[in-house]
UniProtKB/TrEMBL annotation:
Keyword Amino-acid biosynthesis: no
Keywords recorded for this protein, A-Z: Metal-binding, Transferase, Zinc
Lineage, uppermost ranks: Bacteria, Bacillati, Bacillota, Negativicutes, Selenomonadales
Pfam families assigned to the protein according to its UniProt record, in alphabetical order: BKACE
Cofactor(s) this protein requires: Zn(2+)
Transmembrane keyword on record: no
Protein name: 3-keto-5-aminohexanoate cleavage enzyme
One of the record's GO molecular function terms: metal ion binding
Length: 271
């Protein structure tokens, strides 16, 4: 099996220091956490940033500062969020694309998100996809529901995106597809042959779905954006602990962990 790409999502838009006091918030804290996670086996950083008050922001300059700090000490792949937070406008969300990161997320549909709505009408999704293609940014298709796979394939039919696509199955968001094995199998069966996929299990499904992905030939995302616990009732000391565990399990099962360069090859970022 090809090496396992571990993505870490160290901060997200929703988690707070009340949820886990080890949550990184400033550019320096996020960068240090990212570098430490890369040392433990992460090859992609799924990046959100926060403002001075710790609130989610998509401000280009804060992304720029954080990315520069990461790149000083690591060649990990930077994947900026275009999801931002559910209350943000489209223009606000799209800002980090101007920095031409190697990758960015593209959610291809609207979903209930706890008490809120994560709104992604198709004209907006098309606009985001075109902006990514224009800037040479590889999208990771964020799938919160199976229909989002087919929305992404409509963008392929319209010749906006090209196969093979890389999908991230975000499973266990209240309002989205549940984080259960049968749903993971259904999602895998629904993507075209030749696609790559990763799974981001929310909360307690992070570990169980991650272990399934290791065995099934997919890839894994971990991190405080999705889960702040190490085990039931025990907070994680840091994102690095979640990365370290998934890398250890992969190695014990006989699946090597991808370096950033191997991840770039698997995802077609380099030939
Ligand atoms: N914060 C969520 C509303 C992404 O990064 O692309 C959306 C999200 C997805 O986190
Ligand atoms: Zn995100």
């Amino acid at each position: 099996m090809e090496p396992l790409i571990i993505t870490v999502a160290p901060v997200g838009a929703e988690a707070t220091r009340q949820d886990n006091p080890n949550l990184p918030l400033t550019p320096r804290e996020i960068a240090n956490e990212a570098i430490q996670c890369a040392e433990k086996g992460a090859s992609i950083i799924h990046l959100h940033v926060r403002d001075e008050d710790g609130k989610a922001t998509q401000a280009k300059d804060i992304f720029q500062e954080t990315i520069a700090l990461i790149k000083k000490n690591s060649d990990v792949i930077i994947q900026t969020s275009t999801g931002g937070a559910s209350w943000m406008t489209a223009d606000e969300r799209l800002q980090p694309i101007q920095l031409k990161p190697e990758m960015a997320t593209l959610t291809t549909g609207t979903v209930n998100f706890g008490e809120e709505i994560f709104s992604n009408p198709m004209p907006m999704v098309e606009f985001f996809a075109k902006a990514m293609v224009d800037q040479g940014v590889k999208p990771e298709i964020e799938v919160f529901e199976v229909g989002m796979i087919y929305n992404a394939l409509r963008l392929v039919q319209k010749k906006i995106l090209q196969l093979p696509l890389h999908f991230d199955f975000v499973m266990g968001v209240p309002g989205g597809i549940p984080g259960e094995a049968r749903h993971l199998l259904h999602l895998i069966e629904s993507i075209p042959a030749g696609s790559t996929w990763t799974v981001a299990g929310i909360g307690r499904s992070e570990l169980s779905l991650g272990m399934m992905a290791i065995v099934l030939g997919g890839h894994v995302r971990v991190g405080f954006e999705d889960n702040v616990y190490y085990t039931k009732g025990v907070l994680s000391d840091g994102n690095f602990q979640l990365v370290e565990r998934i890398a250890r399990i992969a190695k014990e099962i006989g699946r090597p962990v991808a370096t950033p360069e191997q991840a770039r090859r698997i995802l077609g970022l380099i030939q």
